[in-house]
Structure formats: structure tokens, C-alpha cells
């Protein structure tokens, strides 16, 4: 790092910033030049966090950055340094346990990362060295090496494609591991590349590594003896990315341009930002309160100690004379030491073991999601996946759901439905092969076909304007494009014919053309072949492909027919095509496009243009010049694209259906019933997305839609900024100012008396809101926009770029109240909003697994979100909230008698409990029952939670961890602590408690208090348990039995390693007293009396009282009797509901 900064400071790194020069094969070019090999990073991938040398110091440093761990470390050091009333073991052992468990967990996770890195780095690859193939480990690949990759292998680094086994100099790859797209992409070799790579002398000049997967700018200089260097442009179509997989191609050769941590895959990898749950924030707030209580106790006791000693004869009584060292100690130093001693004595009020218990609860609890059989999808044979167990309880606190449309609400399974040619409607289910069936009338009043010539032109456009490749017929074929043989042979049925494409829309359109009799035969040596109605094969030379991009929202091809005509075919979104064709043609198509979009279909418009010789020559020169540019290549290509895609003729439009996911409507309705706001964020057009929202019941027929789109902004004939200002204030008045007060909350109003509003915004309008002109008030617009959105029942954001999706989520997440957000999507374009939200859900859909890998949780289908939130989320939150409150409660019960005891021992720092009890209270005696409770408890049955979505609202806004419940638990702990101490004190008012007349000592006093304490807090948890399993019985009664057995052994044996044994036979003597037995039982009952009365007098409420139907109960029990209990606990109904 220092060397890099010095290089940049003194100019040594200046060239590196702009571009890099790569010598192909690491050979000098030309051969007579002096060759100094450039230095680039090796091909090692490092995703691990630790090494064997830095694990211990680095892990300890990270753990002690947590306030609680650092606090207990300080307490431990104080016990070691200062003469304190308790042994350092009492705080050192729990701290050691916490640190060790966490270190083992993190070390294991990093070991898995090391193992994965080693598998990648040691993977054998084939490299050409001096023209001969050689095998080496992947980590030893250098920039400039020529690498061989065979079919179904992943690329070990970023390669420029030099040679392919296919005759058309292409190869197919899948990039699902990079961008989530599982469709095949076509890549091309460098044009006019020599077949003999051994004699190749070339250099590559390209940009420095950057993370954009879809951008690459470079050029290749090919040197030949006695010839000027030939220059070839390089773009993304020539770059094979590390992590992508070679498909449908026997083998390829490529030269390494980026290696190791400079590959685009490595640059795109970013560790997930640490997401903190609302429960963790509540824990920190409660810790501060208890820390203040701890300091207050220490200050009070320190003050009272010196007040006591200020009395005559109390500072130095005859039985406790001061030493010379004590007499020479400065008063203030002594006071500070005493303060620290009291801090140590009371430090157990801060529950260090709670962090371990919470971690274990989250880690073990996440398995219930994985084991839930309701999440298993037989189609993909997979269930749910948990990538982050730290957010389980957040699933029960979601207030806003942001969902993608395509692939999430819909199936992303495209089917050609209909088309429109010159204003005439055609279905895809005509019984005639050589003609169309007109189902709707044209826009004009004439009922007639569009004409044979127009129909053939439209179908040719569908067969030519795409990047589809025909799948090879057999594994032994290299030129698999010729799958149909001679023209006279019958074609295979459309549904049996395989295609490879980067988009399912393109495959649907090509198959749609096949149904009408025009068949795409494949691309061979830049020649596209199609078969027409007469079974004649038409050939077209592919001259240029003007690739699709989200800005233009269209793609084009330039082809030349056998007759010499140069044609441009273009397809794209209506908003992108209509401005580039004649207005009179638009009116004939617009009605069809709008109607198809209203019905929920995805629409594309098709246009064409005949290019004159001069027009093509200008376009060809412009494209070649732009593709050779190293600087601003994208902008130059865009300018040429826009220049050539003008004055086109509109032929028609297509409609493709993407059906709704299974139970999508029921899921959305349940989420809204649970009080969540659902926002749909999609890149699709407004009409299609709006129809999907109606189908999913996000919008209802009675919903008044507020539309903030480019169309509404341009409708008034004024500047967009002015219309934006007026529309925002108008919508704000309707949805916020004039709305009933009840609509200000997050819950949907189901009353028909109150109007419901739906808000629609597109990407362009959102850009104006987020980034307005300098003379407008940015924050004011955002505030109005956010208030409008929050007061609408559902929000639709269409034509959204991935970055805009993340901006929307971030805006809501940072709004007033910090609502909990959830994003769900299935594609790479959803990753940004998945990472931005509090909880990210990936759907294992058809657009790859990028969203799944970057998510916190992954589910096979959208319908599983309902149970994940309403059942799992609800129960997880209740469990961990009870765990947190219970830990603070039982520790306050534990330490309050110790504090009260100081008033009766002259504030002498005398401990009430034995050191063994202090150490094991949180680790052994009371830890397992609450852990079992936090894993298995079901206060409400699963089916009741699913049937009554409104129950989710009962725990909204962190209801169980607010200050009200916290105060209740604190008061309860104080009450019981007072009962423990003063109840036992009343017992000790009787001087003779044993049959032989002996009195109990101070250790007997503490042991009785501790016994009542352990039994009370454990039985309190038993009273709170609604769902009993054998595990609950085992840990609750087992913990109490363990305490009794331990006390017998600890006090019944003389342990040689103890200098003093305070509890020797104390427990035996205590249990020999009938009075002690009576007091212990009475105090336990008296302490639990408030909980018992509360449980008896509390009136059951609504769905909480619903029991299972007998038929379901018996049937369900019989059906799942052989299932492991831990799985049955979550997937089946509960037997007890309160």
C-alpha cells in the first residue's frame, strides 16, 4: 500500500491508471524488441479473513471491540490486580468461554473459506508454453498466458477469446455465478485471428481492471513480418470472465488479461455489510441502563462504607487492625479501589453469557428454516437456505416489503401469445401454417389481413433480430448450427427444438415465429438462415449487431440479403421505438400495445429500415471507428446507434406472457393483512407492471391510482420540474393532508369508507425527485414523495434501474422511525436492493443464483415468504425477545440480594454467594432452559399464525423489547429479589434452625437465597412455556437436579485444590432443617404468585384461543409421528395455544 501511494505521488504509477499493455504468450512484439515482462498480480484468490499467524491477535482484537467483552476484560484485570472480594475465576471463566466459543465459530467459518480458496487456486489448468500444452495450478497463471478451457469448465481468469472449436468462431458461456443470468451468452473470437497461436505475435492494450461486468475496452495489435501491425477492437463480446462456464463448445483458447484479485469477479465481490437487528440495538440500550444501575450500586456502597467508617471505632476496630501498608494508602486511592471492588462484586448484573446464548439461539434456530418441509420445492429439489442467521428475529419485524416483478411475482417463463401487424391482431394458435387468424379488428374499420408482404417482413424480423443460437443436435458435432439438414427435410416440432439465448423473451419470439411457419435455422459463418412458408431457405449476411442496453432499451441487426439489399431490423420497448418511426404508423400499433400491457403481457415493437449504400457505408465506418476507441467507446457507439436507428418503418408488435407465481396473490394479501406495505420495484413497463399489481391484489378496482411518470409530467405542456412540483403537492394533499388520521400508520385500511390510494412512479420521474435541478429544493421533494408513498396502500415503481431500486430502499430505511425493510428478488439486478434492505430474500428462480448468494435468506418460491414471515419470523422474535428480557431479569434477581446484603455487613464487600455459584449461575444452572425455550417455544400454533395475519401486528415496532415490557421485567426482578433476601432474613430471626440448636452462618444464608433464586427463575420460565417437548422437560428439571447434585458434591467432598472450602457440608445442613425447607417452598410460591395470578386472570384474546381442529390434530399427528421432534416443532401444529 505504501509503495503504491509513493508511486502515485512521484508519477511512477501514472501509466497504470490509464491502461495496461499485455504481451500475448509473454513473447516480445515484435521479436527484435527488448522484452521486459510487466508486473501484474498472480492468479490467487483470497477470500479468507485470517491466516494461521494472525488469527489469534486479530480475532481477539475484533472480539474485544464489543463493549460487553471489553467490559468483562476490564473487570477480570481489576480482579487480578486489585484485592477484590471475589476470585478472578468468577468473571474470567465466563469470559474465556464466550471468547473461545466465538473464536471457534469464526475460525471454522474462515477455515471453510480457506478450503474453498484452495480448491480454486489449486485447480489444474492447461496453458500453452512455447506452443506446447502444459498443466499447472490455476494460481500460477500469469497475465499474457494462453489458456485452454474445455466444455463445462469455468474460466480460471479473465480471458480474451483467441480461438474456438466452433466453425463460426464463437463460443457460448453461462454467467449465472456472476450476474445471475442462467441463459447462454455468445462470445466472439478476435476478428481475423491466426489459427496458429504458436506463431502469434501480438500485444493487447486495454483498460485497467474495473468491476463493471458489461464493459471492456481494448484493442489488439497483431504483428506480421514485413507488414504494418493490424489493429483489432476488443469489447465485452471478446472477454470471457472468471467464474463463467463454457457451454456447447468443445474447447477454446484465450489470453489472460486480468488475474487473481484483479478479475471482474473478484472486484465485484464485497463482503456483506454487517446488518444489525433491532433486538441487538435494544440489548445495547438495556445494557446501558444496567450499567448505570451497576455504577449507582457501586457508588452508593462506596459512599456508605466511608460513612460507616467515619463513625467512632468503626474505621479500625480491635478485631481488624490496619496494616502499615493500609495506613500509608492515600484516601482517594483507597476509595477508588473500593469502588472497583464493588463494581467487581456486582458485575454479574451484566450478563456476558447472554451473547453466547443469543448466538447459539440464532445459529441453531436457523436450522428450523432449512428443515421446514413446507419450503421444499420438488421442481428444483431444494428447500430454503439461510446465509445469515443474525437476522432471524428481523423476519418478525418487517414493515416494508420491496419485491421484484419478473421472476418473483411472475414465473419468468415466457410464452408467445399474440402479435399485431400493421394494426391487425393475430393469435399464436392459428390452425393454418401459411396464414394468420385475425382475432381482433384493426384500428381502422376494415376487417382484413395486413397483407402477405407485411406478414412475411414481420416474421423475418422476428427470425433475424436477435442473438439466439440453435442448440447443437449432438455432443460430437462442432458446427451444430446446421440442425435441420437440407431444406426439404421436415423440421422438428417447435417445442422439441433447442435454442440458446441471453434472454427468454428472444427464445419466445423465435418460437412464436416458428408457429407461424418461419423457422430460424441458425448462424453459420456470419450467415443467418431462415426457412419460410414455402420451405425455402433464405440466407442473410450478418453485418452488425447493435446490442441491447437498458438506456436505449432496444437492439438492432444490420443484414444483407442475397439480392444485395441492406436491411436494419430493430425491436425494443414502445417508448424507445415510437419516437423513431413515422407518427401515422404509431397510431395503428399503439392500441394493441396498450391493450396487451393492460392484460399483463410483455410487449415489444418491431421496426425496419432499408439502408442505402451511402447510409450503410457511413454506419459501418462509424461503428468500426467507435469500436477501436479506448476512451469513451460506449458514448461513441451510442451516438452511431442513435444515428442509424432513425426514420424507421414500424411493422408491428409482439405480446409475451409471463404468468404469476403460484399463490402470489394470496401471499401479497397476507402480507398487507399483517400490516406490511408492499412496493413493487421493476424494470418493466408501467402497463404490464400495473396489470400484475391488480392480479396480485396489491391494487384493487376501488384503489385510486396516483401516477407520477414521464407521461403525466409532460401532459401539461410545461417544464417537467414545474409539473413535478404541482403533482407532488396535489398528491400530498390527497393522500396525506385530506386522509383520515388512521391512514397514517403502516396498516392497510380495509374499510370501504376510506379511500385507498396506489402510487405509480417511473425511473425518469424518480430521477427528478432524487436529483432535481439546482434551483429546486431537493430535500423538500424527497420528503413529499416519501410521505405520499407511506400513505398509499401499495407503490409501483416501474422502469427502475438496479441503482434506483437501492435508492428507494435506502430512502425508506432512513426515514422517520427507521422502519424495518425487506427486499426480495431473483435476479442480479435485484442484488443492490437485497444488500441495502435490513433483510434480503433471494428467490431460487430462473435468472441464476446471484440474488440467492447475496441474500440473507433464500426460498424456492414467493409463496414461501408468507410462512417465513408470519410463522417463523413471528416465533423467532417472540423467542429472542423473551430470551433477552429473561436474561436481564434473572441477573437482577441474582445480584439484588448481594447489594442488599452490603447494608447488613457494613458495606465490607463480603460476597453473599460462593465463588462456584457466582461462576456457574449463568453458565450451567440457568442457561439451558432459556436456550431450549428460545428454540422450541410456540405461544401460538403455526396454522393460527398463517390463518390470522393480523397477529403479526401484535409484535410490530419491536413491541416486546420496548421500555414498557423492560420496566415490567425489571420491577418483577426487584420484587422477587426483595422476597428472596428479606424472606430468608426473616427465617434467620429464629436463632436455632437445626435440631441440635446450632445456628446457620452467612454461607448458609447465601446458599438458601441462591437455592430459592435458581428454583424461582427456572420455574418462572416453566410457567411461561406454552409448547412443551421432551427437550423442555429434560433441560428444566435436569437443570434443577444438576444444581442439587452439584451442591451436594461441591460441599460434600474436600477438594485438594481449594485453599478454603466455604460450603463444606453447608448444603447438607441446610436441607436437614425443616424450617429451611418450608421457607424455600414458601418463598418460591410467593415469588411466582404474580405470574400465577396474571395467567389465571388474563382474558384470552381472539385468535390466540383457537385450538386445532380435531381432524387436523389427529391426522397431522399420525402423519408426522416418525419425524424428528425438532422438525415437527416448526412444521406441524402446536398442541397448546394460549
TrEMBL record:
TM segment ranges: 64-82, 285-308, 339-358, 966-988, 1003-1023, 1035-1058, 1064-1089
Composition skew (Polar residues), residue ranges: 1104-1118
A biological process from GO: phospholipid translocation
EC number in record: 7.6.2.1
Listed Pfam families: Cation_ATPase, E1-E2_ATPase, PhoLip_ATPase_C, PhoLip_ATPase_N
Keywords, alphabetical: ATP-binding, Cell membrane, Endoplasmic reticulum, Endosome, Lipid transport, Magnesium, Membrane, Metal-binding, Nucleotide-binding, Phosphoprotein, Translocase, Transmembrane, Transmembrane helix, Transport
GO cellular component, one term: endoplasmic reticulum membrane
Gene3D superfamilies registered for this protein in UniProt: Calcium-transporting ATPase, cytoplasmic domain N, Calcium-transporting ATPase, cytoplasmic transduction domain A, HAD superfamily/HAD-like
Cofactor(s), names only, from the UniProt record: Mg(2+)
Catalysis performed (reactions): a 1,2-diacyl-sn-glycero-3-phosphoethanolamine(out) + ATP + H2O = a 1,2-diacyl-sn-glycero-3-phosphoethanolamine(in) + ADP + phosphate + H(+); ATP + H2O + phospholipidSide 1 = ADP + phosphate + phospholipidSide 2; a 1,2-diacyl-sn-glycero-3-phospho-L-serine(out) + ATP + H2O = a 1,2-diacyl-sn-glycero-3-phospho-L-serine(in) + ADP + phosphate + H(+)
Domain spans labelled P-type ATPase C-terminal: 852-1099
Subcellular location field: Cell membrane; Early endosome; Endoplasmic reticulum membrane; Membrane
Binding site for Mg(2+): 404, 406, 826, 830
SUPFAM superfamilies for this protein: Calcium ATPase, transduction domain A, Calcium ATPase, transmembrane domain M, HAD-like, Metal cation-transporting ATPase, ATP-binding domain N
Alphabetical list of PANTHER family matching this protein: PHOSPHOLIPID-TRANSPORTING ATPASE IG, PROBABLE PHOSPHOLIPID-TRANSPORTING ATPASE
Cited NCBIfam families: ATPase-Plipid, ATPase_P-type
Protein name (database record): Phospholipid-transporting ATPase
Organism: Electrophorus electricus
Gene that this sequence comes from: atp11c
Amino acid at each position: 500500500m505504501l509503495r503504491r501511494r509513493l508511486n502515485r505521488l512521484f508519477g511512477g504509477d501514472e501509466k497504470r491508471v490509464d491502461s495496461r499493455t499485455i504481451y500475448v504468450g509473454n513473447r516480445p512484439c515484435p521479436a527484435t524488441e527488448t522484452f521486459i515482462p510487466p508486473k501484474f498480480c498472480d492468479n490467487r484468490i483470497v477470500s479468507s479473513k485470517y491466516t494461521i499467524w494472525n488469527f489469534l491477535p486479530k480475532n481477539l482484537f475484533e472480539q474485544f471491540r464489543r463493549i460487553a467483552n471489553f467490559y468483562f476484560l476490564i473487570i477480570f484485570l481489576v480482579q487480578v490486580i486489585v484485592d477484590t472480594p471475589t476470585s478472578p475465576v468468577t468473571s474470567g471463566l465466563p469470559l474465556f468461554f464466550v471468547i473461545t466459543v466465538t473464536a471457534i465459530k469464526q475460525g471454522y467459518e474462515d477455515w471453510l473459506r480457506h478450503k474453498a480458496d484452495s480448491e480454486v487456486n489449486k485447480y489444474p489448468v492447461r496453458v500453452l508454453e512455447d506452443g506446447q500444452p502444459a498443466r499447472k495450478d490455476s494460481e500460477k497463471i500469469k497475465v499474457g498466458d494462453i489458456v485452454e478451457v474445455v466444455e463445462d469448465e469455468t474460466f480460471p481468469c479473465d480471458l480474451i477469446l483467441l480461438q474456438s472449436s466452433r466453425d463460426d468462431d464463437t463460443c457460448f458461456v453461462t454467467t449465472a455465478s456472476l450476474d445471475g443470468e442462467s441463459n447462454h451468452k455468445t462470445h466472439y473470437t478476435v476478428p481475423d485471428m491466426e489459427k496458429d497461436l504458436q506463431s502469434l505475435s501480438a500485444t493487447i492494450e486495454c483498460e485497467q481492471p474495473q468491476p463493471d461486468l458489461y464493459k471492456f475496452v481494448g484493442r489488439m495489435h497483431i504483428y506480421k513480418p514485413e507488414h504494418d501491425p493490424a489493429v483489432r477492437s476488443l469489447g465485452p463480446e471478446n472477454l470471457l470472465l472468471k467464474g463463467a462456464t463454457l457451454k456447447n463448445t468443445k474447447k477454446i483458447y484465450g489470453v489472460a488479461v486480468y488475474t487473481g484479485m484483479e478479475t471482474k469477479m473478484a472486484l465485484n465481490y464485497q463482503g456483506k455489510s454487517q446488518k444489525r437487528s433491532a433486538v441487538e440495538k435494544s440489548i445495547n440500550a438495556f445494557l446501558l441502563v444496567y450499567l448505570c444501575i451497576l455504577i449507582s450500586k457501586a457508588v452508593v456502597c462506596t459512599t456508605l462504607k466511608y460513612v460507616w467508617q467515619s463513625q467512632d471505632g468503626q474505621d479500625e476496630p480491635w478485631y481488624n487492625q490496619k496494616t502499615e501498608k493500609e495506613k500509608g494508602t492515600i484516601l482517594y486511592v483507597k476509595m477508588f479501589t473500593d469502588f472497583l471492588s464493588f463494581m467487581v462484586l456486582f458485575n454479574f448484573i451484566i450478563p456476558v453469557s447472554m451473547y453466547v446464548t443469543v448466538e447459539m439461539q440464532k445459529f441453531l434456530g436457523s436450522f428450523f428454516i432449512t428443515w421446514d418441509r413446507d419450503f421444499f420445492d420438488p421442481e428444483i429439489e431444494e428447500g430454503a437456505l439461510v446465509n445469515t442467521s443474525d437476522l432471524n428475529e428481523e423476519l418478525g419485524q418487517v414493515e416494508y416489503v420491496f419485491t421484484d416483478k419478473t421472476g418473483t411475482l411472475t414465473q419468468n417463463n415466457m410464452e408467445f401469445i399474440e402479435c399485431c401487424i400493421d394494426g391487425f391482431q393475430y393469435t399464436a394458435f392459428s390452425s393454418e401454417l401459411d396464414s394468420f387468424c385475425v382475432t381482433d379488428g384493426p384500428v381502422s374499420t376494415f376487417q382484413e389481413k395486413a397483407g402477405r408482404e407485411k406478414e412475411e417482413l414481420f416474421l423475418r424480423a422476428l427470425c433475424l433480430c436477435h442473438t439466439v443460437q440453435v442448440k447443437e443436435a449432438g455432443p460430437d458435432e462442432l458446427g451444430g448450427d446446421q440442425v435441420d439438414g437440407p431444406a426439404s427435410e421436415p423440421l422438428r416440432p417447435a417445442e422439441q427444438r433447442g435454442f440458446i439465448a441471453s434472454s427468454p423473451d428472444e427464445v419466445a419470439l423465435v418460437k412464436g415465429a416458428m408457429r407461424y411457419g418461419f423457422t430460424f435455422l441458425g448462424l453459420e459463418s456470419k450467415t443467418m438462415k431462415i426457412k419460410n412458408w414455402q420451405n425455402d431457405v433464405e440466407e442473410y449476411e450478418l453485418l452488425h449487431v447493435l446490442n441491447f442496453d437498458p438506456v436505449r432499451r432496444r437492439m438492432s441487426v444490420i443484414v444483407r440479403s442475397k439480392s444485395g439489399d441492406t436491411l436494419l431490423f430493430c425491436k425494443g420497448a414502445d417508448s424507445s421505438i415510437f419516437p423513431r418511426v413515422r407518427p401515422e404508423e404509431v397510431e395503428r400499433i399503439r392500441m394493441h400495445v396498450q391493450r396487451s400491457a393492460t392484460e399483463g403481457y410483455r410487449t415489444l415493437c418491431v421496426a425496419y429500415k432499408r439502408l442505402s449504400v451511402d447510409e450503410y457505408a457511413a454506419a459501418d465506418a462509424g461503428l468500426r471507428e467507435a469500436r477501436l476507441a479506448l476512451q469513451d467507446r460506449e458514448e461513441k457507439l451510442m451516438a452511431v446507434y442513435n444515428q442509424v436507428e432513425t426514420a424507421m418503418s414500424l411493422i408491428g408488435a409482439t405480446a409475451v406472457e409471463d404468468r404469476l407465481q403460484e399463490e402470489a396473490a394470496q401471499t401479497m394479501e397476507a402480507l398487507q393483512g399483517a400490516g406490511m406495505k408492499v412496493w413493487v420495484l421493476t424494470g418493466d413497463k408501467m402497463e404490464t407492471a400495473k396489470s400484475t399489481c391488480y392480479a396480485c391484489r396489491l391494487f384493487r378496482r376501488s384503489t385510486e391510482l396516483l401516477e407520477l411518470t414521464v407521461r403525466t409530467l409532460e401532459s401539461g405542456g410545461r417544464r417537467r420540474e414545474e409539473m413535478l412540483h404541482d403533482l407532488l403537492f396535489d398528491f400530498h394533499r390527497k393522500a396525506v393532508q385530506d386522509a383520515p388520521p388512521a391512514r397514517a400508520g403502516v396498516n392497510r385500511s380495509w374499510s370501504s369508507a376510506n379511500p385507498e390510494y396506489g402510487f405509480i412512479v417511473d425511473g425518469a420521474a424518480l430521477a427528478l425527485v432524487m436529483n432535481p435541478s439546482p434551483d429546486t429544493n431537493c430535500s423538500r421533494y424527497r420528503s413529499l414523495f416519501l410521505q405520499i408513498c407511506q400513505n398509499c396502500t401499495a407503490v409501483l415503481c416501474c422502469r427502475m434501474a438496479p441503482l434506483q431500486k437501492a435508492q428507494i430502499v435506502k430512502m425508506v430505511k432512513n426515514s422517520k422511525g427507521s422502519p424495518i425493510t425487506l427486499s426480495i428478488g431473483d435476479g442480479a439486478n435485484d442484488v443492490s436492493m437485497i444488500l441495502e434492505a435490513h433483510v434480503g430474500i433471494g428467490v431460487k428462480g430462473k435468472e441464476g443464483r446471484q440474488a440467492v448468494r447475496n441474500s440473507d435468506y433464500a426460498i424456492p418460491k414467493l409463496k414461501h415468504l408468507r410462512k417465513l414471515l408470519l410463522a417463523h419470523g413471528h416465533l423467532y422474535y417472540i423467542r429472542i425477545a423473551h430470551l433477552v428480557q429473561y436474561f436481564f431479569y434473572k441477573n437482577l434477581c441474582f445480584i439484588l440480594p448481594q447489594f442488599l446484603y452490603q447494608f447488613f455487613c457494613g458495606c465490607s464487600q463480603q460476597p453473599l454467594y460462593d465463588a462456584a455459584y457466582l461462576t456457574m449461575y449463568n453458565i450451567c444452572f440457568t442457561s439451558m432452559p432459556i436456550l431450549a425455550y428460545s428454540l422450541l417455544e410456540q405461544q401460538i400454533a403455526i396454522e393460527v399464525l398463517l390463518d390470522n395475519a393480523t397477529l403479526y401486528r401484535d409484535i410490530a415496532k419491536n413491541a416486546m423489547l420496548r421500555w414498557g415490557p423492560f420496566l415490567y421485567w425489571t420491577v418483577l426482578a426487584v420484587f422477587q429479589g426483595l422476597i428472596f433476601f428479606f424472606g430468608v432474613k426473616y427465617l434467620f430471626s429464629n436463632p436455632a434452625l437445626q435440631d441440635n440448636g446450632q445456628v446457620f452462618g452467612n454461607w448458609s444464608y447465601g446458599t438458601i437465597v441462591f437455592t430459592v433464586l435458581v428454583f424461582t427463575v427456572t420455574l418462572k420460565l416453566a410457567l411461561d412455556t406454552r409448547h412443551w417437548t421432551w427437550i423442555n422437560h429434560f433441560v428444566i428439571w435436569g437443570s434443577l437436579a444438576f444444581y442439587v447434585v452439584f451442591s451436594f458434591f461441591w460441599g460434600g467432598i474436600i477438594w485438594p485444590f481449594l485453599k478454603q472450602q466455604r460450603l463444606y457440608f453447608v448444603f447438607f445442613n441446610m436441607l436437614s432443617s425443616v424450617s429451611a425447607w418450608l421457607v424455600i417452598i414458601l418463598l418460591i410460591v410467593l415469588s411466582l404468585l404474580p405470574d400465577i395470578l396474571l395467567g389465571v386472570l388474563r382474558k384470552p384474546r381472539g385468535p390466540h384461543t383457537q385450538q386445532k381442529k380435531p381432524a387436523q390434530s389427529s391426522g397431522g399427528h399420525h402423519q408426522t409421528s416418525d419425524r424428528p421432534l425438532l422438525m415437527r416443532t416448526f412444521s406441524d401444529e402446536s398442541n397448546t395455544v394460549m
